[in-house]
TrEMBL record:
NCBIfam families hit by this protein: yidC_oxa1_cterm
Domain Membrane insertase YidC/Oxa/ALB C-terminal: 60-246
Predominant localisation class: membrane
Protein species of origin: Brevibacillus laterosporus (Bacillus laterosporus)
Gene Ontology MF terms in the entry: membrane insertase activity
Gene Ontology biological process terms, A to Z: protein insertion into membrane; protein transport
Membrane topology recorded in Swiss-Prot or TrEMBL: Multi-pass membrane protein
Role: Required for the insertion and/or proper folding and/or complex formation of integral membrane proteins into the membrane. Involved in integration of membrane proteins that insert both dependently and independently of the Sec translocase complex, as well as at least some lipoproteins.
Keyword Membrane: yes
UniProt xrefs under InterPro entries: YidC/ALB3/OXA1/COX18, YidC/Oxa/ALB_C, YidC/YidC1/YidC2_Firmicutes, YidC_ALB_C
UniProt record similarity statement: Belongs to the OXA1/ALB3/YidC family. Type 2 subfamily.
Signal peptide interval: 1-26
Protein's recorded name: Membrane protein insertase YidC
TM region positions: 60-80, 128-152, 174-194, 206-222
Length: 259
């Protein structure tokens, strides 16, 4: 269950974006677009993309890549906090397992369940760990990434631009971008949870296979600008997850070995 809780915000972000892709407002975004979401969230990102395109001589493909990397870099401290919280929770896992073993009948006995919950809260308090701390950074990222997503989707300049072998406003005819987006999503989720024993469960495998499939199916039909954004963001997250896992997991593993 810990693996699901860790990646649930990512899954929800993908699900919400894919759902809104089919029913959201697709009118061109401008400074006069009405509504708080469009005016204060989506439009500023379209303005930044336009600025990046001007910097690259009108290359909107490069502008999307630059802005994706910039936004992911700005959000990096939030991801670091999330990974640090996850490492702290992993450090407490042996003690949590002991409590679960001690109160093995907690599912049938409400009194045992209450005692176990109280002891867990005391364990978190004495260890200085907040079990919800890992969720907050992910939730903060969601509106930022979604606003950037819809800015890309609703800029007419992007829809008419050709980049590499594809037109940013049309689906990739060779399905290369959807495949790359699905692959980066798959490897990112595998890497982010490979240290979690719960990942071995069959229901966990189904959960993590679903996200790449959803990304691939959406990428087959959406304008190529969006799978391009997913690929760049996915590669960045893959490298980020690998490095942060080494930074936060290695000290944990070494300390566990010495005990």
């Amino acid at each position: 269950m810990k693996a699901v809780r860790k990646s649930l915000p990512v899954f929800l972000l993908v699900a919400v974006v894919l759902l809104l892709s089919g029913c959201s407002n697709t009118a061109p975004i401008t400074s006069n677009s009405p509504g708080i979401w469009d005016h204060f969230f989506v439009y500023p990102f379209s303005w930044l993309i336009q600025g990046a395109a001007n910097f690259t001589d009108g290359n909107y493909g490069l502008a999307i890549i630059i802005m994706t990397l910039l936004i992911r870099t700005i959000l990096l401290p939030l991801m670091m906090k999330q990974m640090k919280s996850g490492a702290a929770m992993r450090g407490l896992q042996p003690q949590i397992d002991k409590l679960k073993k001690k109160y093995s009948n907690s599912n049938q006995d409400p009194k045992q369940a209450q005692k176990m919950q109280m002891e867990m809260m005391e364990l978190y308090k004495t260890s200085g760990v907040n079990p919800m701390a890992g969720c907050l950074p992910a939730l903060v990222q969601m509106p930022i990434l979604m606003a950037f997503y819809f800015a890309i989707r609703r800029m007419p300049e992007i829809a008419d631009h050709t980049f590499m072998w594809f037109n940013l406003g049309h689906a990739d005819p060779f399905y290369i971008l959807p495949l790359l987006a699905a692959a980066t999503t798959f490897f990112q989720t595998m890497l982010s949870t490979k240290m979690t024993p719960a990942m071995g469960a069959n229901n966990m495998k189904i959960f993590y296979y679903m996200m790449p499939i959803m990304i691939f199916m959406a990428g087959m039909n959406l304008p190529s600008a969006l799978p391009l954004y997913w690929v760049v963001g996915g590669v960045f997250s893959l490298v980020q997850t690998y490095i942060l896992n080494r930074v936060y997991h290695a000290p944990l593993a070494s300390s566990a070995t010495t005990k």
